[in-house]
Amino acid sequence: MTQELSASRKTIVGVQFLFVAFGSTVLVPLLVGLDPATALFTAGIGTFIFHLVTKGQVPIFLGSSFAFIAPIISASQQWGMPGTIAGIAGVALVYFLMSALVKWQGRKLLDRLFPPVVIGPVIILIGLSLSPAAVNMAKENWLLAFISLISAVIVLTFGKGLVKLVPVVIGIAVGYIVALCMGIVDLSAVATAPWFALPPMIAHFQLPQFAWEPFVFMIPVAIAPVIEHIGDVYVVGAVADRDFVKEPGLHRTMLGDGLACLFASFVGGPPVTTYSEVTGAMQITRVTHPQVIRIAAATAVVFSVIGKLSAILQSIPSSVLGGIMLLLFGSIASVGVQNLIQHKVDLDQTRNIIIVSMTLTMGIGGAVLSFGTFSISGIGLSAMIGVLLNLLLPRKTSSDYDQ
To answer: What are 136-148's pLDDT values in tens digits?
Structure first.
């Protein structure tokens, strides 16, 4: 359902939508060592690319993806950040292939490859694999971490309307203010930062240092975001009372997301994904006009060139971020559990127990598969194992029939 709004009202709501997505969009680069201004820039331009491909019909905002935090950290330790960022092009390749498959076979093939019994454990693993990083950052100052955490929890529990959708922003803001009062924030970089400046990766643009190892490493990790993309398109369609899977088509939304990820890899930003937070904001405000989302994207681009803002974001104490991460990463894992429950995955079936068990233990246990100089581990390896087991294991085993 699309409301007719004045230009000023659209602008106000669009800026408001960006603040809903702001916390998560800048948190991802802060955690993996990328520039938050670049992430805002790629989120804004990526959203415009998505809207161009989808004929301007689908009210979706693309922001930094949490699914790639652990893979980016792991890949950067092996191949350096330049090679890792270039490897994000592998994520785009997955979206392109899935777009072609959907165009050719429809969604049934995706349901066969990536059922809930595969996706649920992968999402759980994304949250659990990040938990050590959250604890390590929080323990630098437990007081600050708990202040940030409690602030976010209070907003989630008692917040109303749009306030309930920005727990990350409010939690970080409260923690940052307390840190300022404690005198442990270094503002020297903020004082010397220019008011306006292009994001570093844009101002000093260089072609990515392409290497096939991180490229292949990132491909399996894209499975979970692809499935999340499909779910978000259906949810946005329900909120807007439109069938976006039919028109402009799921193949177009996937292609748009993939091109946005490809753009991010060329300019040094994290992979982007559809943001359910903004969908929630649309549901509350009942504003679903795609133009409003494009205003949010334009605001993100404007924010990306405010040098002072980027410096402030980078001055946030790691313990403040750690406190928020304790909640966020646990929430990601709980979404995976929720996915299994909602789709009524039968864990009395032997095959389902095997798939869930192997996916989790291989990922949490740190299993590594190596071929010469190439290796794959963590979420990517676990996702591949889950998909293969789902395809190879029989739907019913003899023990299932005996029960």
So the answer is: 889 989 999 999 9
Euclidean distance between the first and final Cα of the chain, in Å?
Answer: 49
For 192-251, the pLDDT digits (tens) are: 888 888 776 665 656 667 778 888 888 877 877 887 788 788 888 888 888 898 889 999
Mean pLDDT of the 100-108 span? 84
Q: How far is CA 363 from the centre of its chain?
A: 19
Residue 4 phi, psi dihedral angles, 5° rounding: -85, 120
Give 153's pLDDT tier (boundaries 50, 70, 90): very high
Would you say 184 and 317 are in contact if contact means Cβ atoms under 8 Å apart?
A: yes
Q: Give the Å distances, CA to CA, from 205 to 82, 85, 243, 334.
A: 12, 13, 39, 39
The H or E element spanning position 273 is: strand 272-274
- Residues 228 and 222: their CA atoms lie apart, in Å, by 10
Fill in the DSSP letter of residue 272: E
Rounded (to 5) percent helix, strand, coil in the chain: 75, 5, 20
Q: Which two tokens stand for residue 366?
A: 């740190």
Taking Cα atoms as reference points, which of 95, 62, 27 lies closest to residue 275?
Answer: 62
Question: What whole-number distance in Å separates Cα of residue 336 and Cα of residue 282?
Answer: 24
Closest CA to 165 of 279, 267, 336: 279
- State what percent of residues in the chain have pLDDT above 90: 26
* pLDDT at residue 108, as a whole number: 77
Helices (H), 106-222: 108-113, 116-138, 142-158, 167-182, 188-192, 200-203, 212-218
